[in-house]
Amino acid sequence: MLKVKLVSTDSEIDQIAELSLANLRTRLSSETMAQEGFITWEYTSEALHAVHQVVPSVVVMDGDNLAGYAISLTYGCIPVYPPMAHTWNHISSLRNLGSQRFYLMGQICVAPSYRGQGVVDLLYQGHRSYFSPDFDFLATEISTSNVRSRKAHLKVGFEIIDTYRDAVDQWDVVLWDWR
């Protein structure tokens, strides 16, 4: 049975690192990326342990097995995960978000055997349930070439608020307004 929860064990963090590594765009074929989606940021087990000392992420578990994860990143995570600083600064400059209560979803991934079973919806409903008392907005960015991810985010209720290019890719910045 699938259960939504906040990360609470080292085993869950290690499973996130394994699933993340397996779905990095640098490890997937073009065909797989087009059909299944991909992730861009690398999260080592060490980085995830540091991030989770600041804020827990939302996971969907099937017993002891990870079905999917959606990493939470607050401003306080920048010192322990510096790759997020550019994204944080860019998103903060949009729609006056820098002076509002928002945080980032740093990455979402569903294990292949659980895709198409509503895990993305469960992860985001978990984010809203756990974090809406403290935040009004959830933001993230999606590679414009990741059609599957873009479609999933728009279905949940995210809105595209910006598109920009950096040295890595072209990104859609998406925002979910919980007010």
Structure explained in plain terms:
The protein starts with a strand and ends with a strand. Strands 1-2-3-4-5-7-6 form a seven-stranded mixed β-sheet, with helices on both faces. Helix 1 packs across helix 3. It has a single domain, classed as Gcn5-related N-acetyltransferase (GNAT) (Aminopeptidase, 3-Layer(aba) Sandwich), CATH 3.40.630.30. Helix 5 links the parallel strand 4 and strand 5. It has six helices and seven strands; from the N terminus they run E-H-H-H-E-E-H-E-H-E-H-E-E. It has 179 residues and is of the alpha+beta class.
Topology at a glance:
Layout lengths: L1 E5 L3 H13 L7 H7 L8 H10 L3 E5 L2 E9 L11 H8 L9 E9 L8 H13 L5 E7 L3 H10 L2 E7 L4 E8 L2
Parallel strand pairs: 4-5
Antiparallel strand pairs: 1-2, 2-3, 3-4, 5-7, 6-7
Helix pairs in contact: 1-3
